[in-house]
Design brief:
Layout (H helix, E strand, L loop, with lengths): L21 E8 L2 E8 L4 E6 H7 L8 H12 L5 H13 L28 E5 L4 H12 L5 H20 L1 H12 L2 H28 L4 E9 L2 E8 L8 H28 L4 H20 L8 H10 L4 H13 L10 H34 L1
Antiparallel strand pairs: 1-2, 2-3, 4-5, 5-6
Helix pairs in contact: 4-7, 5-8, 6-9, 7-8, 7-9, 8-9, 8-10, 11-12
Length: 374
């Protein structure tokens, strides 16, 4: 299918994208630089190149094809012929992205685990609110003021201080965690609190996304027994206007996990409590910190991976890095086709994730040694 275009004169046709179509910033993908274009009706996303994006970003209904072609020629030194226009507009039309053209059919909703949504006793999802985006907006109106710098800067400083104390007194925290696991009542209480922290983690993603113009598609429960967790799906995360907005959205959950621990840390440090309570608080501080920091590990699909991808300006970062390193190690000529920015990003991610993995293994070994010595 192609979109009819009146070329006599070409300025009579002023293409524009369908209302609601999302266009992302530039991302690295392998050796290429791409933009993502998403149809919110069907939920489908498409990759387009830099040159296609140059034209698509200017299709606002105010420019005719002659004007678009002139801007393209000024940027790239080459005018587009009728065949080029037919190909581009036909592609957009077939995908239902052009205003005035047929819309692409809605696709069946799928859950983020892949495949059509299913609900069984052992596995499934359950939306908890009818309008997740409206719920996130109400939460943002209620607590969004806490995201302002006068609140966030002291909070982040307190969290940093708490984690510094945790590292300095790590032995006490490990002993407290061991003691916590020997007390079923206190362990159940700590588990309930950590689950509640996880729920707040997910809501924090949604509230911060709403602050930056994101849309929350779903808030609910997901289970793969015996694990039951809350989830919050930000539908247009990759299309948020600014890279730092995306990083803030991805990191919001871990910050919330750590913020929940602050009052318990204060009681552990400053309140006169008995030994059993002190050990339980120390164990809770260790388990909660591990829970939060684990989400910042830069491996997919964790929040830390999303942050790393945004810092590198890439989509599909792990797969692209693996492929580039494979080519580079084999001295494959294809590795030279990668632009310098891509090479830097993929090598930095590979080195950084390797160091993180080594640090995790070292921490596990140190923990085992400590427990054996104890």
């Amino acid at each position: 299918m192609t979109v009819p275009v009146d070329h006599r004169p070409t300025d009579r046709y002023r293409p524009s994208l369908r209302t609601g179509v999302l266009v992302s910033e530039a991302f690295l993908l392998g050796a290429r630089t791409v933009h993502l274009v998403k149809d919110p009706r069907s939920g489908r996303s498409y990759e387009v190149g830099v040159k296609e994006h140059f034209l698509i970003a200017r299709m606002d209904g105010t420019r005719g094809l002659d004007e678009l072609g002139a801007e393209y020629a000024a940027e790239y030194g080459k005018r587009l012929g009728d065949a080029n226009w037919q190909r581009l507009l036909g592609m957009l039309g077939v995908r239902g992205l052009l205003a005035g053209g047929p819309a692409s059919p809605q696709t069946e909703t799928t859950d983020s685990w892949g495949g059509p949504p299913r609900r069984t006793l052992l596995r499934g999802t359950l939306p908890l609110v009818a309008d997740a985006d409206a719920t996130a907006e109400r939460l943002h109106r209620a607590v969004g003021f806490l995201l302002a710098a006068p609140f966030m800067v002291p909070l982040l400083l307190l969290i940093t201080a708490m984690e510094a104390v945790a590292v300095a007194r790590l032995g006490e925290l490990v002993d407290g965690a061991v003691a916590l696991f020997t007390n079923p009542v206190l362990l159940a209480g700590a588990a309930a609190l950590l689950w509640f922290s996880t729920a707040l983690h997910e809501l924090a993603h949604g509230v911060v996304a709403r602050r930056y113009g994101g849309q929350v598609a779903e808030i609910g429960l997901r289970w793969r027994l015996p694990v039951v967790i809350m989830y919050c799906t930000v539908d247009n995360y990759l299309y948020l206007r600014d890279r730092w907005h995306r990083i803030a959205t991805a990191g919001a959950g871990a910050v919330m996990n750590l913020a929940v621990l602050l009052p318990f840390c204060a009681v552990w440090l400053f309140a006169p409590v008995d030994d059993a309570t002190g050990e339980a608080l120390a164990g809770l501080l260790l388990l909660g910190s591990v829970q939060a920091l684990a989400m910042l590990v830069p491996f997919p699909p964790l929040d830390g991976y999303k942050i790393a991808a945004q810092l590198c300006g890439a989509t599909g970062l792990a797969a692209s890095s693996k492929e580039y390193v494979r080519l580079a190690v084999r001295r494959d000529p294809a590795a030279k086709a990668y632009p310098r920015r891509a090479r830097t990003a993929y090598l930095a991610y590979t080195a950084g994730s390797t160091l993180v993995l080594a640090a995790i293994l070292a921490a596990v070994v140190a923990l085992i040694v400590h427990l054996l010595a104890r």
